[in-house]
Design goal:
Blueprint lengths: L1 H13 L2 E2 L6 H7 L2 H10 L10 H12 L2 H9 L3 H12 L2 E3 L9 H5 L4 E5 L2 E5 L2 H7 L4 H25 L1 E2 L1 H11 L6 H11 L6 E4 L2 E4 L8 H10 L10 H6 L10 H13 L4 H16 L4 H9 L8 H16 L11 H6 L4 H4 L39
Parallel strand pairs: 1-3
Antiparallel strand pairs: 2-4, 3-4, 5-7, 6-7
Protein name: Zinc chelation protein SecC
InterPro entries: SEC_C_motif (IPR004027)
Length: about 400
């Protein structure tokens, strides 16, 4: 913990102004180097910035950052944590915290809404007086309504890209409008999307689709092309609003009865380490979304040094994982499970979605023979004959 706090502190100091704290925007900008001013001007899309001298940059930035429209557009796309910090600074313009995560204020600092100072061993997060004054000139009722709208659209984009991998903008709008009273048209949505993606997000627009950020990585380009071919003409699985928005959390997945059954078997027969088994189940579910093979899934056991006591036990686990696979929501099936796709009538190709994991052979499985009087490998502390060997 001490090492982690030291790392946070050093990162914060690296980007802080060294010297006495001030809350005057003009004085803060005077404390910045020309390089920092130019970077700030670039983040704010200040026109003519490349030809400006330091004092000209300071004057232009002061005018730009205190402009009410600029402030509102910058605040509309803040995250919840960033907005909480901004609200805290409205009440108390200087906060002291050496160990604050840089991610909490990085965006705000890049837009000139907050700055950090390091003075006499203390880190201070500062809101300039002029920014606070500009904020109180906003139409707050209108601003909060707009912010709630942008935040909800952002949640829906995260949820749909996590569930589908890729979705057409018109289908996104259709889902959103079916589940919300305040309607989106294409023009308003594209404007919101452009604002949201003016900062780094976990999604982007690619090949006419809104896609998950993973698919935009250079090493994932072929995977994206393949996905777009595979999803063509397939229907979308559309859960109810409450369930769909759970997918905004990148770690969320549906804990199906099949996963529950697999977990119970592993806990009873292979390992009593609940935390390890939970991680195993999480990784198996993720592997199934990526169309894993039986060998891929067995490796999730091997890398945790979980061994089978017999080929019969391995076969049981593979059968359980086969059920998990066929009831896991997958990008290539537009959020449907292979089982659901196999049930869609009148389409032979879709029936082929349901699959059986290939059976294991002895070379794929690590089987450990255990003496009846040896400690049980499940971790219970009992002898094997008194536990899983019964």
């Amino acid at each position: 913990m001490e090492d982690y706090n030291e790392m946070l502190e050093q990162m914060n100091i690296q980007h802080a102004i060294i010297g006495d704290v001030t809350t005057s925007l003009h004085d803060i900008l005077q404390d910045l180097t020309k390089v920092r001013l130019s970077s700030l001007a670039s983040a704010c899309n200040l026109p003519g910035r490349s030809k400006m001298k330091k004092q000209e940059l300071i004057e232009a930035l002061t005018a730009h950052m205190t402009d009410v429209e600029h402030l509102q557009s910058a605040l509309l796309i803040t995250s919840s944590l960033e907005w909480q910090l901004f609200e805290s600074l409205l009440r108390q313009p200087v906060l002291q915290n050496n160990f604050i995560s840089i991610g909490h204020y990085w965006y705000l600092m890049n837009r000139g809404l907050v700055f950090t100072y390091f003075s006499e061993g203390q880190l201070y997060i500062v809101m300039p007086d002029e920014i606070k004054e500009a904020y109180f000139k906003l139409d707050h009722e209108k601003y909060h309504h707009q912010r709630a709208g942008v935040e909800l659209v952002h949640e829906y984009i995260l949820a749909t890209t996590h569930l589908y991998g890729a979705i057409e903008p018109e289908k996104f709008i259709e889902i959103y409008n079916a589940q919300n009273s305040e309607q989106l048209d294409q023009k308003r949505f594209l404007r919101m999307f452009a604002d949201l993606t003016s900062r780094e997000q976990a999604y982007t627009l690619e090949s006419g689709y809104i896609v998950d950020g993973y698919l935009t990585l250079e090493e994932s380009q072929e995977e994206l092309k393949a996905l777009l071919l595979q999803i063509k003409d397939k229907p979308l699985f559309i859960p109810k609003r409450e369930e769909l928005l759970k997918y905004a959390d990148e770690d969320y997945f549906e804990m199906t009865p099949q996963l529950t059954k697999l977990r119970a078997y592993v806990m009873k027969e292979i390992s009593r380490d609940a935390e390890m088994v939970d991680h195993l189940i999480d990784d198996i579910q993720l592997a199934c979304t990526m169309q894993a093979t039986s060998g891929d899934l067995i490796r999730e056991f091997e890398r945790r040094e979980l061994t089978f006591q017999s080929m019969e036990q391995a076969d049981i686990v593979v059968a359980l994982m086969n059920d998990v696979y066929n009831h896991t929501r997958q990008w290539i099936h537009r959020g449907h499970t292979p089982f659901e796709m196999s049930q869609i009538a009148g389409n032979v190709e879709l029936r082929a979605a349901h699959r059986q994991l290939s059976p294991l052979n002895k070379s794929q499985v690590s089987v450990t023979k255990i003496g009846r009087n040896e400690p049980c490998p499940c971790g219970s502390g009992f002898k094997y004959k008194r536990c899983c060997g019964k």
